[in-house]
Every structure is written in structure tokens, then in C-alpha cells.
Amino acid sequence: MSLSDIKHSLKKYEFPVSAKEALIRIEQILVGRAGTSNKQVDGAIEIISEFVFCETDRRSGRRSGGLTPLQQLQLIDIICDYLSSCTNESTKNTVFLSLFGGMESQRRLKILSILASMAVSASSTSVLLAVGVWLQQMGCSSPQSLQLVENVIRDHFYLNTSNQMTLKALATTAPQFVSNFITAVTELYLHDVQGVNKLPPKNLLEVITSWVYSNPTLCMSAQLNPAALSNGAIPMAAVTPLAGLIHWCALAPLYIETDSEMVEVAVPFKKIKIEGEKEQSIVKNYVNKSLTESELYIKLHLGVLHSLRAGRRTHGPPTAVNAQHLAGLVPLVQAYAHQLLQRGVKLHTDDKLQDCLDRIGQSVQVALANGCVYGNINNLLTLLDTLPENRLLRIIIKTHQQAI
Amino acid sequence: MNPPNKSTALSADLNNFIYGVAKRSPQNAPELTKIGLTLLKNFPAARDAVLEYFAMVFHDAVNASINQIEYAADVSTHSSLECVNMIGAELGGLGQSWAPFIAPWCINLIMDIATKKSNVPNTTLQSTDPVRVLLDVTTQNLTLLNPEERAKCIDMMLGSWACSWAVGWVGRAEPALVAPRALALGADAARAVLAHLAGHAPARPHIRAALLQLFHEGIEEDSRSEKKREVIPYLLNLASRSDVVLKALTQDIEETLTDEVVERVRAICAASRGAGGAWEGVGPAQLVALLARSHARCLLLLLRHAHSDRTCRQLLEYLLQKLEYESLFPDKTIPLLNSVAEEIDLIREKMLTGNQLEQYSLARILILVCNNLPSEFVNTISYFLQYSRNDTTLALLVRIVSGTISMHIPNDSTDINMDTERYQNLIKTGVEYALRDAMISDTQIKRIFIEDNVPKDQKTYLHYYCLNIIKLLRWENSNQVSHLRSRPFGRAVEASLYAVGGALQQYAGLLRPRPPATCAALPDMPTCHALAHVLDRVDMSGTKAPQPSVEVILKVVQATVKYFFRCLHEKDIMDKLRGVQTACRLLRKLCLHSKLARAIALRELLETAMFREEHAFGSRTSATTSTSISASARDSGDDLLIYLNQKHGPITQLTQSHTSVFHAGIIGKGVRKQNGGGNDGIPPILSTNNELLMGALMSCMDGNSGVVEGATSLSLLLVELVSPDVMYNGLPWPDEDFTKQVSIERELYMRAVLEGCSVSRAALRRAASARPALCLASALLRAVAATLLHRLRAHLATDRHSQSPELARERVALSELLATMTLGQLLPHPLCHMLELAPELTASETVQVLRDCLWNYTRDHVPSPALFTCDSTGLHWRDPSTCKPPATYTDTLRLIIQKRISTLGHLYPIMFLNLEKEVQ
């Protein structure tokens, strides 16, 4: 069946149905016969644009509005149905990537965001896995990925705050997605962007801690289960969230105000703020959730250390943590130490700084000991040496420099 | 573990929603809405779609409720409204993190609805339930946003032309944010927004603040660009379209347009005169139109500046002319005039204190106001009458009154009478109100009294009022003021005589409450004089105005009498005489045309003089003297006769026994004093007060037959007042024995009263001179005669030679009686000379003469008016030639004279010789 025939047959249907039919045709085009030609791929892209996303008019003129939110929802439903019913992992991923793989379309990205968010809400494993693959293929720190992750965070940690159990369960159903998701999240928070440090909201931190702490293998899952792609596609290397999480844990003592505990609690605001209500909700929160934010970071740190141990690979080079990534911590800590000096505080008496250095030391030691670090380890050690005085760190540096 | 189950459940909701929406119908709307709401909570990602669906629901609901207004409600409206309420409740409560999504959605939806329904009137649209819900949700969510987002949302709304009402409504939550932004728009859009915003009272200060800020920025010294100067035309332009803006700008305009600001504005205007552009829209015509819609304070400001500024003066004149022209259309309301009516106190005050320009301009305005509002007309008259202190302001009042009356009257109008009648009534009400208010003011505590800086010539408010009225009346009477030709004030005062009389009565009353620190504590008399003067100036004859009613006459007469007696107590003789004269004039005026007035005046005068004010006339009453003396006697204990006479020990005293001796004296006065009491003398008739009173009495009986009638009633009154009962008050004199046996006690009593009361004796004399009035007081004469007979006879029996004071008194009384009777022509020719004879007679002779010549003659010739004939001139008199007493009555006299011819001989020819001749 030629491209024009397919188009002609699709034109018989109105929008929702036409999209459904189009998906089947696309699958046929892309997967059906071995060795798809460029021409066929182009045709599939055309069909996607015209019949799935309705970006071009039936008569090839530009459509002004695109899909209305309701139509988007219908389309998402159709895509979900399709993805759930698709049995072949690689077919699914191929179709998915061809739907959303394009870098340029903001509209599609928006639909994808909604799709991902809905999948999270509905715990739709197949969709989440596909999204996980998409994240990995796009690169977890790419702007598109970050935008998608931001959308998901806003939907599930700001707007809807009552779904913690569902979210926690995701770690077991869609670990690849979760792993990539965390990697992207670590890019969003506690990254010094022009002197502004955004702290992750507490419920997000809780969920991530719970994920990492309860599944030591989670962080490595994206690497352990490589994405199933169509023949000829180039799989992108998965980046583990470990380095980012080490960042978080190490920097947390520096940025969390000890007395900010009480304020940082994300209180779901009521319509009208009544004086005194805040205190009340804090007390409630304090009773319900035994862990404060700094305690959560401690727990997360332990979880990370566990994950590092699980990240040991029996064969092949280490892949878990990039040494350069870890080295990125050094300037931040040094800047902090510099501030302290300016204020005339002695470095070895500052508990926060020592806490931070201890955690860096622990992480580095566990990572090195388990052979999880790749890249220029020597460089890392040299940089660590420039950090302020810390006993544990000194021992570790000495030990490993001798080993090399 | 059941995530699949759960996920399918959620997907089922999603599917239901998606396909439900695809086949949307009124029936499944509530169901879908519920699903939508759960989706919103569980699938935040679906929010765009859900909100879109909700927008459809809102559109439907708006349609439904607009139609519902026109047709009866059906099921679908109901369900859609139900949905809307459900959605409203949910969206309002989603919290802060949702607000950035909900608020723009709401605003877009409002704009959508407003644009689609732009053919529906705003008010209808606003009052529909869905729109209300939507506006509530918007407001709730806007308050949750942070300032930048909020500003963005509001800008979004301001961009749309169709939903200014929504901006106004939603802006109520954030007036401080909306008002300045709205002002940045064009005049039309700003007007619409501000109008809606001002529907919410707390937003108004913000509007005002924004406007003022704009204004002040616009006139700042260093405002670089000329563009900024256009703020003034812009504001004026805006104000001309929007009442809200105008109100906000003109509120407290004195604070806004201080003198420096005005200077600055003047400079700017001078600089940009002829600049064209926006300034062309604000010529004098527009300014005047604006002023006509503005507040009274603006007018005052204009007046203040008009004094020094030519432009302002021109504007003022222009404005006045426009107002006067516009007022000719009866059903046109001019806001400025309404405002003036509201602030009328301020305006009136300005009228009193302002300069000439202000006074004249405000008078013109007041004419317009008064013409529209009769109540203000009344109040204005009342105010001026109370507070005007000089001729200028009074003249303004005249001007206002005449202007108001004649404003609407075309020359050929037929209902001119009706209209003037109506205005006359209003003026009368004003005069009355002023009187009432002045009297009330007099009883109020005033600051000047508390601070104790009362000016020397401080007068009561009523006094000022009277002075104003007097001046107006004088102007009227002068006939030189054409406006007062119709005597509006004179007629008004005449119509409210009752109130004026009441006031005089109240102020002349001694028992008036006089609270400290009020005008009531000031001396009364100046006020009373002024009131009397007012009454004096008014015509009460009924020639120019309808005859005053009975109540009015009664009131005024009573008041006048009261005033008269107060005048008698005046220290200053000139004041006293002047006051009395005024009172007499008043009485004369009143009594001239009304017998009723005369009767009441006489009675009041006499009663008061005899029983209440007797001390002023030197009278003494037996009651008071006896009580006072007995009181003093009781103090000393045993001075009373009864005690003295009981002190003679335990001997039983038999009647007629010679063993007992009694102290002599008058019961109640103790033992008789040997030299006689100094104050026992009969009070003299001739005293100033007595004469004044007589003058007053006489002035009551002015006129042709008035004197006789008046004197007659005077006599009757005297009888009534003196005689203790109603019996034996007839004209005939009974047999002398009869009096001895039956009526001697009451005659003694009447005698005592008459003797104690010089007024009554003086009045008797007056009655005697107006023959035949004295006849009617025959009972009194009889009483005197009877007691004289009795007492003289008693003296005859006891000590004939004594020159005791009692005897002297009896003689005085006798001569008075004779004089009175002679004057009244009750004793014809020979008998009348008893008067000359009496002092010469001995006691026994006197008794004889009294009995034979006086008593018996009078007994046989009943003193009745029938004896007096009326001659051609209307004068009553008794012709001596026809009423010669028979010899039986004159023989005693003749014998006595003959017996004592040596001393009394000169009387004989006078008394008898002519008679003899005639007999012969």
C-alpha cells in the first residue's frame, strides 16, 4: 500500500478515530517490513503530523490552532491504549520515539508531558517505560527532559499532593523511568544557578528517599536493562542518578538552615490563610512525619551508599559514577569555605562544613572501594585534596593515591 | 498489590470523561462534572482538558440563565447551574499552587463570555449565577497569586474591551492594583472600569488615590515631557464621562487644590493655552458642564478664586447663566444644585460671611435651589431670619424670595395667584420655623457663655429674629421696595401671629426656665420689647389680611397683657413708658375690631392687676396681710387676742358678766395699737402704675360706642371679681334693714377688697365716667354704702368725739363713694353736693344723710341704665331737669344746712335755691 493510499484511507475518518488508525498504519510502516527506507520514515512522519497531532491540515495548509485540550486528552487516551496493547517492547519504543522524538515541536512536548504525568497518575507501566526510554534517548539533562520532569513534578508534587503511595510504588513497576526521572531531577535542584539554590520540595525528597532507600538496585536499573530499540537505532548511554544524589547529600548540610526546618514544610494552602494556622499544620506534620528534612537527607545518603555498593559490576568497566561529576562538588564547597573564612569562622570548627566533607569522604570511599567510578580518578583525588581539612577525607585520599 | 486495578479504575474515569465529553448533553453534565473534578485531583495533567470542559459548562450555564430570565426554567438550566456551583466550590478551594492555572483560565473565560454576550446588558450578565460563581472563583484565585502574576492577569483583563465590568468586579479584590492601570487606558475604557470598580465602596479610596497621584504627577514642576501636561485635559475628559471620576476628584477638593497647586495649574494652563490637541476638548463650555455636575465645594472653590481671577469670574458667570437656563426645564436635575441642596448649610454660612461677589452669586444659586426644593426655600428663609445681622444679608433674602417666587412666572400666566399663594404659605412656614428655631437656640448651651466672652450687646436669638422681621416690615411699609409690594413678610407674620404671640407670652413669663450658659439667661425684656414691636408693626385689623382667628386673638391678648405687666416692672422709666405704650397700642389695635379681644383683655388686665400684680399698684389684700401678721404674731406666741383673752385665770367667765374684761383689737392682728398702724391707710388711687393700667384699660375700649360697652363690662367684671358670690349682685338696693340682717358680711368683705385694692376703685371711677356703666357695679356701691352706714353708726354708739384712724378712713371712703356716684350721675342735682357737704358733717349727721339721702334715694330709684337716655350724639346721660329727687330725699340735707347755716350756708343756694325757683 503506498503512502498516498494510506493517507486516502485515513482521510475517511474523523479526528479521534483517524489517530487510532494512523497509529496502526505507522506501526506497519515502521516495523512491518524489515529495513525501512528513509522515504517510508518520512511518510510516517507526515502521517504523524497530519493524522495524529493534526499539525497540518487535511489539505496540507497549516492548521492554526492544533488540538484543543480535550482533543489532546483523546489523543493521549488513544496513545495510551495503543502503548498498553503493544506487546513488542521494541516496536512500542520505536513508535513512541517517532511520535515524540522530534526535538523541535513544543506542542508535542506538551502532549508528552501530559501523557507522562497521566501515566504517573494511572501507574501505567508500559507508558512509563516508554517515557523512560524517551528520557534516556533525549538525555536526562536535555532541556526537553527537564521540561517534562518539571511538568511531572508540578503535577504530582505541587498540584496533587495526595498520591504518595502510588508514586512510591512506581519504583518497583517502572524502575527505568524512575531512575531516569531522578537523574533529571538532580539536575533541577541544588544546582548552583547564578547563586540561587533551589531546594527540592519536601514531598519530592521523601519520595526519592523512599525509592532509593528501599531499592538499592534502582539507580542502576536503567543501565542494567538497556532499552529495546528498533534495529539500527543508536541507544544512548544511561546516566545514573547516583552522582547527582551524592551532590544533594553532600551539599544539603550547607544549604539547609537548621531552623528552616519548620518553614520548609510544604503546607497545602487553604483558601484563606488564617493566622496561627501555619503553626497548627506544622505540629501536625511533625507528628505525622517523623523525619525532618535533614534526617531525610541522612537517610537518602545511606540509601545512596547502599546503591553504590549494589553498583559494583562483576565484569566490564565501572559505569555508575563519573569522576568528573563528583569533582564538580569541589568548587561549591570551596566557595562556601571561603565565605566562612570571610566571616572569620574557623573551618575545622564549622559543623556544617565538616558534615559535608564527611559525607563526600564516605561517598567517595564507598564508590572507589566498589569500583563504581569511571573517568579520571586521579584528577578527582587531587581536587579533593584542595578541600578544607578533614580527617576522613585525608585518610581516603591518602589510601587511594597510594593505590594508584 | 493492585496497581493494575487502580490504574484501570482511573483510566475508566478518564475514558468516561473523554467519551462523555464527545457526546456531551445536558443530561450527563453533572456526571461529567463530577468525573472532571476527580480527574482534576488525580490527573493534574488533564487539567487543560477538564478546564476546557468546565468552560463549556459555564458557557452553557450562562446561556441557560440568560434565557431563564426570559422563559421559565427547565431541567437543563437546573442541571447546568448545579454543575456550575459544584465547579465553583471546587475551584475556589484548590489552593495556592493551582491559582496560576485557575486564574488565567477564569479570566479568559470571563473575557470569552463577555465578548460572546456583548449584546446582553452588563447588569443582566453580571447577575446571572454562573458569572457570579466565576467572578468569585477569579477573585479567590487572584488573591492567592503573587503580585507579578496578579498584575499580569489584570493587564490581561484590561486588554479586553468587553469585560470592563468584570475588571471592575474582580478588581475589587485588588483596587490598588487595578485603579492606576485602568487610568493608563483611554478615557472610555477607564471610565467603564472605574465605574464598575466604584460599585464596591472600599475600592473608592484607591480610585481617588490613583487619580490624585496621576494629577500630581501631571503637574509636577519637573515633568519633562509635554505629554505629561496632558494629564489635566485627560482627567477633565474622563471626569466629563464618568461620575465616579468626577466624584473622586471633587471629593475634598480644597485639600487637592490648595493655593500652591492652583498656582501651578494656572501656570501650566497658561503655558499650554492654544496648544491644541487634548486641550481643545476642555474649553469653557466643557468646564461649565463639568462644574454643573460637580459638588458644591467646587462651586465654593470657584467663588474663592473668582475674587482674584478673571477667568474664574467669567466661568462663574457662564455657569450661573447655564444653571439658570437649565433650571427652566422642570424635569431636569442638575447635580450641582442637588449637591448645593445637600450642603446648603455651608452655602448659607458663606452667604453671611462671604464677600459681595460670593454673596450675589450664591444668592442666584439659592434661588434655583429654592425653586426646585420648597423645603429649602423654607429653610433658607428661616436661616436668614435667624442669623442675618445686617442689611446686606437681609436684602439678599428679599432678593432670593422675590427671585424664587417670580422665576417661573410668565407674564401671561393664569395660575399666578395659586402660585403666589403657595409661596406665601412657604414664606409663612419659614417665618414660623425661624421663630421656633430661634426659641430653641435660646435654650441651647452656647460656647460663648461657657468660655465667658459674651459680647456686651449680646442679644437672644429671638431678639435678632425680631430685629430682622422688624426691618423687613419697615421696608415693606416704606413702599419703596418693589419686591416687597405684596408684603410677603407682613402677611407671613400676620399668618403666624399665634406663634409670635406665644413667644411673647413665653418670654414675658416669669416662670420661664433659665438654664445657665444659654441665651435664656440673658435679660428678657429687650426680647419682649422687640417681639411687641413686631406685633405692633403688623396689621391685625383684618383689612389687608384675613381676620385673625379667635385663638390667635386670645393668644396675642394674653401675651400683650403679660407684657404690659412686665413693662410696669421696668426700672428705666423711658423703657417702661415706651413698653406700656406699645402694649396699649397693641391692645387698642386688637380690641378695635373684636369684642372678644376687648372682653378678654379687660378681664386679663383687671384680674392680673387685682390678684397677681397687686403689689405693683400698692394694693394689699386682707388675706396676705392677715397671714403675714398672724405669722409674725404666732412667732411671738401669745400676742393673739384669743390667747390674751384666755389668760385671765381659771374663773369661769359668764357672758354679759361685768367681771370679765377683754382685750380689744382685731382678730388676727392682736391687741389694738394705740396710734394706729402706719400701713393701714387706704392705698391711693393716683399712682403711676395705676394710671398706666387705666390707660391700658381705656385703650381697650377705644372707638365710638366702645367706651360705654367697655366700661359696662368693666363694671360687670369688677362685680364678678370683688363680690364673693353670685347672689345679691343685682342692681336694686334693698331695704337698709335687709342688709343688716342678711348681707352685711359679704358687704364688709367687698368693702375690704375694694379698699385694699386701689385698682378696683380707680376702675370704678373710670366706669362712673362712662355713664351708665356704673349702674352695673351697683352691688359694689351698695356694699360700700351699707358698710359705711353700719360702721358710722357703730362709731356713733361708742365714742362720738374720737378722731380715730378708723373714723378718718370711713370718711375718706365716704367721700370716695360720693364722688364716684356723683360722677356716675347716680346722685342727681341736690344730692350730688353731699360730696362737698360730707367733710363738714358730724357723725350722726353723716349717718342721717347717708340713710335718708343716699340709701333711700337709691333704693327707690334703682340705678339702672334705663335712667340714662341716649342723646343724638350717642352720649348717655341723665337729664338733671327730669330727675329731680323728691323732697323726701332732700329734706334731711336741707334741714342740716339750715341748722348749720353759718358754716354750710354757701351750699344752700347752690343746692336748693334753683330748685325752689323751678318749683315756683
UniProtKB/TrEMBL annotation, chain A:
<dbReference type="Pfam" id="PF14964">
    <property type="entry name" value="INTS15"/>
</dbReference>
<dbReference type="InterPro" id="IPR027844">
    <property type="entry name" value="INTS15"/>
</dbReference>
<protein>
    <submittedName>
        <fullName>Integrator complex subunit 15</fullName>
    </submittedName>
</protein>
From TrEMBL, chain B:
<dbReference type="InterPro" id="IPR040316">
    <property type="entry name" value="INTS5"/>
</dbReference>
<feature type="domain" description="Integrator complex subunit 5 C-terminal">
    <location>
        <begin position="193"/>
        <end position="904"/>
    </location>
</feature>
<protein>
    <submittedName>
        <fullName>Integrator complex subunit 5</fullName>
    </submittedName>
</protein>
<dbReference type="Pfam" id="PF14838">
    <property type="entry name" value="INTS5_C"/>
</dbReference>
<dbReference type="InterPro" id="IPR029444">
    <property type="entry name" value="INTS5_C"/>
</dbReference>
<dbReference type="Pfam" id="PF14837">
    <property type="entry name" value="INTS5_N"/>
</dbReference>
<feature type="domain" description="Integrator complex subunit 5 N-terminal">
    <location>
        <begin position="10"/>
        <end position="172"/>
    </location>
</feature>
<dbReference type="InterPro" id="IPR029445">
    <property type="entry name" value="INTS5_N"/>
</dbReference>
